[in-house]
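Let us work through a complete example step by step.
Step 1: write down the sequence.
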Amino acid sequence: MEDLLYLYAEPVHPFDPIVCFDERPYQLLADVKEPFLVKPGQPVRVDYEYSRQGTGNLFIYYAPHYGWRHVEVTGCGQNQLVNR
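Step 2: predict the structure and record it as tokens.
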């Protein structure tokens, strides 16, 4: 990582932009029960039980000097909840 940090300090070149890429697997979860009703002023009570809805991948492209980013979501596994 330290070997690449010098790229961010270089001046902006319009014909030679710096575009970064990252990928992250993501687990899709859903609540099984609705949050419990509480009296006003009390914190919300949540049941931490969940059901697994599959997995997905986040692909992130960004250009740090231009403030530009793009995220693509792809699904994999049994249940595909893509573009939610």
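Step 3: interpret the result. Residues 37 and 72 are 36 Å apart (CA to CA).
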